[in-house]
Amino acid sequence: MRKISTLVISILLVLVLVAGCANQPAAAPAKEKFPNKAISLVAHTAPGGGGDVFARQLGKAIQTATGNTVVIDNRSGGSGAVALQYVAESKPDGYTLLGITDTMIITPINNNIPKDLSSFKPVARVVLDPNVLYVRADSKWTADSMLEAIFKGKQNIKWAASQAGTPETAVIDTLIKKHNAKISSVLMGDGSKALTAVLGGDVEASVAEIAEIKPQLDAKQVKILMSFNSQRNPASPDIPTFAEKGYPDLSIDKFRGIAAPKDTPDEIVKILEDAIKKALEDPEYKKTYTANMQIPAFQGSAEFQKTITAKTELYKKAFAK
């Protein structure tokens, strides 16, 4: 009888212990470290375009800084509209990012498209990519003679630009509409065709990113007259700005940066922001952006959002109909 009682008590104790364990809260699963797989960095241009080159160069630097793979995904079309929609609708987990520039502000202003930068959370501004006014190297033009011609001359001067709805056409439109400049704006479709028109003498000048004309600049086929940045570029300190010539409203300080889908958690955005800041210090990346005459201009997420908001207002005025 005693043995049976002991057995019963033992069974009851086991049941009590099991029940007690069952009532304990389950251990929370360990939080996954970010990043733990490849990051997709979407470029809004085809391979070789400005957005693609930026994404590849920065992606390589981020890989070096973090040890994590960065894969470039080219989604060109619609002046950035295709890339905007694709990334905005991607999972907000930090693994799909978008390389952004002023184009992503301008395209939604000028076109009825489903997504704009309000569908994103800025991660970081990386560099400024200067727009410049350039001419053929053997032309007669200087900065002062060009200003004299477009503001006091009797005939329109032909300037080429890549396509409508770009930072390049924004500054040309501002010159024509606000300052009554005598300029005939010739849209060429892309920067390479605009360059060909300048070299062939079909137009007097064109507006472009320095990176787009760097080979011809190095070969002394073209020369830069002025920059549309707010201050002189440390990489080319001899080039004056439109701002210092009395036209501060022509300072566009074109940016290149990174954004994530809007609902991406802040802690993931912070990790990415820190990785980009570290990447800017990478010696190889420094050589690359210096060679392209880009200006390092890091801004974290919050400051970058302020920049985007201010530039949105600037471009709304520039493209007002």
Short description:
The protein is an alpha/beta fold and 321 residues long. It has helices at 2-23, 50-66, 81-88, 103-110, 143-152, 167-179, 191-199, 210-218, 266-279, 283-291, 301-318, and strands at 39-43, 70-74, 96-101, 120-128, 131-136, 157-161, 183-187, 205-209, 222-227, 255-261, 295-299. It folds into 2 domains: 39-128 and 254-318, D-Maltodextrin-Binding Protein, domain 2 (3-Layer(aba) Sandwich), CATH 3.40.190; 131-250, 3-Layer(aba) Sandwich (D-Maltodextrin-Binding Protein, domain 2), CATH 3.40.190.10.
Q: Could you characterize the architecture of this molecule?
A:
- The chain is α/β, with parallel strands linked by helices and 321 residues long.
- It has two domains: 39-128 and 254-318, Bordetella uptake gene, domain 1 (D-Maltodextrin-Binding Protein, domain 2); 131-250, D-Maltodextrin-Binding Protein, domain 2 (3-Layer(aba) Sandwich), CATH 3.40.190.
- It is built from eleven helices and eleven strands.
- The strands form two sheets. Strands 2-1-3-10-4-11 form a six-stranded mixed β-sheet, with helices on both faces. A five-stranded mixed β-sheet has the order 7-6-8-5-9, with helices on both faces.
- α6 (167-179) links the parallel β6 and β7 (183-187).
- α2 packs across α9 and α2 packs antiparallel against α10 (283-291).
- The longest helix is centred in the N-terminal third of the chain and has 22 residues, at 2-23.
- The N and C termini lie far apart (100 Å).
- 39% of the residues are buried.
- Mean pLDDT is 88; it is low at 6-18 and 25-29.
